[in-house]
Write a structure and sequence with these properties.
This protein has 26 helices and 27 strands. By secondary structure, it is α+β, with helices and mostly antiparallel strands. Strand 6 and strand 7 form a beta hairpin.
Length: 824
Amino acid sequence: MFVQRPGLLVPDTKLDLAVDPVGLLARGLHLWDPQGGAGELQNQAYGYLFPMGPFFALLQEAGLPPWAVQRLWQALVLVVAFLGVRALAARLGLGTPGTRLLAATAYALAPRPLAQLGAISVEVWPYALAPWVLVPLVTGSLRGSPRRAALRSGLTVLCVGGVNAAATLAVVPLGVLWLATRAPGPRRRALSAWWAVAVALASAWWLGPLLLLGKYSPPFLDVIESAATTTRVTGLWGVLTGNDLWQQYLAVGGEPVRPAGFLLVTVPSLVVCTTAVAALGLVALLRRTTPHRGFLASGVLLGVVVVAAGHVGLRPAGGVERDLLDAALAPFRNVHKYDLLLRLPLCLGLASLAAEVRRPQLSLAVLRQPAAGLVALALVGSAAPLVRLQPPGAFPDLPSYWQETADWLADRAPDASGRALLVPAAQSGTYSWGRPGDEPLQPLARSPWVVRDAVPLGGPGTTRVLDQVEEVLQSGRGSAALAPFLGRAGVRYVVVRNDLDVRVTGVRPAVVHASLAASGLERVAAFGPDVGIDQVSGQGSVDGGLSQAYPAVEVFAVEEASGLVSALPRAGTQRVSGGPESLLPLLDAGVVTGRTPVRLAGEDPLPGEQTELRTVTDGYRDRETNVGRASDPAGATLGSDVDLAFDRPVHDYLPVPAPGHRTTAQVTGFAAVTASSSAAQADAVLARGRDHHPTAAFDGNGSTSWVTGGLEPDGQWVQARTAEPVVLQRVRVVSPLVVGSPLELARVRLTTDTGSVSAPVRDGKAVLVPPPGATTRVRLTVEAVTGPFGPARYGALGLDAVVERVGGARLTAERLLRVPADAA
């Protein structure tokens, strides 16, 4: 741990642990946090009260530097896991002292701890303590006092902590399984009863706050990762080898978010090694001579069922579990946390198998040493990514100017009013100086602040307001209504983070500054050195080619900010059909002025409310939101003919019930226009734009076009259907160049009800004569793509089509917005 990035903090678990663990513990005593997220119920904060929070607080108070405390904690996790398996194997009588060390190494350096330890070690801590939960139960089932054995096991459950309830509860099933496989009798009954009491008492301290959080908190589980995401990689190979963490397959800014885990699934030799270790463990459990074979095999079977059942490859069962993981079982949808259910039995089996290999009675004595060598080689290979444990973005300390910013804001908000809004939005704390994961203000602030990140915990209304602000800031045009809009939301200061890593966020500071200037906001403070110049070359800029330099942090004042509490007359209340974001265009248009109170259609009326004006807007769109994206997360307005991109229970942040209050899209000219993908969808990754929807291919407007939404345009299609059969004369296709994409359309196929034809595309144009006969379908498919150096694969393509009937009449589509019909 200490030889990897010594002297640098890594983004492990929570920034507060390294910067201000005592403050984190103090905040953990309260469920409500008035400072962060526009006021929010704290998620998981109470879980740090023991043991991780005190560990960091005591060692830092003793004078150890925060980075050293981080490494000591990570080392402690591995050592506890190692010693636990060694002790458990001894209690079970598995293997020899030497082979128990082999099993302990396999467990401590399995793919899950390697993938997660450097980035979120608190979730590996229950994995490390799981063997220690079983050790007293194994002893108590054989001898001694059942009560004392149960209480010792319960004490271990207490030490697991309560940061993540699902990960904590994962240590329990193997204990239940062990007791269930013991011979019936008074000892088993006493041990089971006392253990149930001990586990309940050990968990009560975090279960209480968790139940309160679940009762009052917005349903944030609906808008974070879905079961389709978490179970995508839980196929049989991923589950058996331990490579079942979906985040280990991801990269941000060109760097893997879990470096060690990424190596395990991308380097062929490591794939072979992890497969070999899992296979050897299975072989051990198939041998009748393996002690406690029934218990160990049952654990593997249980683990495979729990972790892999939601995988799409196991449908129809997978479909049922996925639905449950997005509904009643949503807190447990990160099924990789239950990897220990099968990892622990498989590793214990290695101890027994290795001991059998070393037996001199084996007839093939010549193969004894090579076999043991292969076992050791597989273990060494699978554990090799240990040298890449720490994630990218390490930094020596938080820049001093962020402390100066926090102090300046606190001095001007003595009454806890005047919230600061951090802009621009970012999925997580990813700065040019490092990747702390959390925002620097989180441990430093003493006044209210809010930011739009990837996990909005403050409720759907707040999230939509922040998204509207981001849309204005990223337009470069600004809005005269931005200041009153922010003021009505209680925002007194806008904090511009010029030190964000533009290469990751994609938001240019120059654009944000242009929007603030056009909106009339004035800078009142600045902190830190000028940033924006490329520190590597000393010239140019990381600001998308715009070489303007700005102070690292700037503060802009909102003069019209409201106080913490205000009273307004009910008379004159306006009812608006729209969302919270609709208030900004209404202020801009002068429909809402001053401090006029506004209520949304769909909200319950206030007692005695007198509504003088009703306004219908098109702002509350029927849309799909990419919940993992903090900036520009929404796709184009949906209609009845649009398929959703994500398989998830909730597709948008809804402050009021959707039926009857949302604006929808309507297509005329054709019965329906669909596509395999489009850059207007919420999941598009290239050439994103809400005007690139499928209808744009047939609208007769040469300045708009359908743009593919996937990484690979080859095989993508767009299709229009007519209400009645028509006879076509020809279809002319134009493929405009897409900004940022090097690809060109080389060949296109036309498919109708009577057949298909294809034609080459030259200079971005092609003419296709359809097969004879009437048709209700016109489908255009990308057949071949070229790049600057020949055939290409990745990029985005645009396509525009002119569909002509026999006689020369054109068939065109028009996409309109239908506003809600709730004016009355």
